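Example (one chain per record):
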Amino acid sequence: MKRLLLPVLLLALAGCSSAPRAMDPQIREQLLGHVEAVKSAAENHDRPAAEAALGDLHRAIAEAQARGELATETARTLLTATERVAQDVRTLPLPEPPAPVTVTVVPDPPPVLAPPAQERTEQRQERAEERARKWEEMRKSWEENREEWRKVRENNGNNNGNNNGNGDD
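Predicted structure:
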């Protein structure tokens, strides 16, 4: 920032205080506080903060004039000086844009699809073979039981000598 323009504003504030009833000492201190905020932001090359501080300074000058605490001519002189400073502040580089935000979207897992027709056919065939094995086991068990019952009936008939063929004792 050019170093000549902020002192111009400070000189304007100092010069205005020497005129009779130009500015109340409390207002002068308040405005000097705003000037310091502009100066600090400008020295730090913080353009947004410097522009905000200049806005606060303009508002403070306008409010003081509206309350009658600042003469119109004094307010005009101060606003002219602040406009020169504002032109100088506009030469500061704008801040870098913020870094881009990276958003990672994790997709939902793919839906579980039905197995292809060949796999389903193989699964059905395996289930059918399993059922056939179980039926065969049951059939063998029934055959064995049937044979055992036949032998029991045969033995019962031979033991008592009363074999009438209907299995009654």
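Caption: The chain has a mean pLDDT of 80.
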